[in-house]
Write a structure and sequence with these properties.
Length: 511
Amino acid sequence: MPSGASKNEQGAPVGVVISEQGFSRVPGRAQVKKLAQDYRIRLATRNIRSLTGTTRELVDTMLRRRISIACLQEIKWVGEKAREIEDTGYKLYYTGKDRHRNGVGIVVDKHLKDSVDTLTRKGDRIILVKLVKGGSIVNIISAYAPQVGLDDLTKEKFWEKMDDVVQEIPFGEKLFIGGNFNGHVGVHKQGYEKVHGGFGFGDLNEDRMTCKDCKVIPGECLVIQHRLLVLDICLKGNIRRRKETRYPRTKWWGLRGEKLEVFKERMSQEVRWGVEGNSNTMWNTIADGIRRISKEVLGESKGKGPISKEKWWWNDEVQIMVKAKKECFKKWQKGRNAENFQGYKQASKEAKKAVRNAKLKAYESFYTRLDSKDGEKIIYKLAKSQEKRARDVSQVKCIKGIDSVVLVKDEAVRDKWKSYFEKLLNEKHEGGFGGEEVENFYGTAIRPAMLYGTECWPIKKQQVNKMSEAEMRMLKWMCGKTRRDRIKNETVREMVGVAPIEEKLRENRLR
């Protein structure tokens, strides 16, 4: 500023407006933080060739590459199920019909698995997962197109199913397709006249700002033939990220050898064992001394802890074999010759053999525990946890409007709840519920809730009587009857047409 320039009373140059917040309104001086920031999700797709014995390496890859959702092809697993990958928090949704071919799946990390709304499975080649995150609805499709050698009818059926899945997605929802299409993808045939079958989606990436940093990563050793493709997508919305909580722990596992002798010596010299006073004072004094000395001698962990992935069978031998396999893969990537390739194949076979042997040992130990006194409790606990982990949708966190359209905006959700309760509370039933209405409502809402999990209960006669009493109270309430009417339970059941809950409980246990 020139020395002769004039200033106002606050000391600022003339023409500059003084802000009440304490800084001048000069362009470039102040930066206001956005309230709604872009939320990034990293997608990946890869032909895995087989998921058996590679779940740990898959989770390692997703953690190292910060992948949130992974589309997998050729997993070669049978069934239309969902399962959590042990203690990692990652959840796998898959579909397959043959152990030797096909099968697709989608892996979702622990921060997004609770946002899954619906799943759609079409045979063993197409699976769709719909997520509701913030103010966005994202559809992820994992597809595996028929390969060369299959007849045209199989290929046409695949593309018809694919077209049906895409057409069912409402307009305005985001769609991302990850898969192995075994051919040229696109609507144009220039240069591909002999191999292009006429199928294509055209240009679906109109909003290029959503997709960023798409690249191929060649350095992962899961599969030799196929490479990992990753893509970052940006979703707008004010999404709060969970803060990571850490709990430091004393490294008691290091209390051996020289540290053990130092710990004993300091405990005998620094801790006052003969403290006068009541028991609480003595306990607090000794406990504080143990904590202080153990922290100084052994140290504390960072509180994050190691990433436990299928730890029930993992051991040091498997760790060494997998590490050797990765080193052989890196060596083969640097120098692509027959010798390095054979070395990698041999290391891969040894790693798979070590995994198989480790699982066999773990299963033997598990069967020994089942033969013990607590074996029955372990079976019930496992059955309950397996049923919970196998659910496609663990909890519902969204509201659907007309035509099953997911409502995201707060105003639309409030209007839906308002109309629902107005209809529920203002309807008048002159003659009460009819027998058929009661039977339908009771069979679809009440009875499933009462019988949930009973197939694993070691149920007793007393518990059956309590469930029968609860059932009869519900039936009388639905029919508008009370105990003052002095109507027998058998008469109420005949009026409603509902079988006793004891029979349904027995049928549920004999499935």
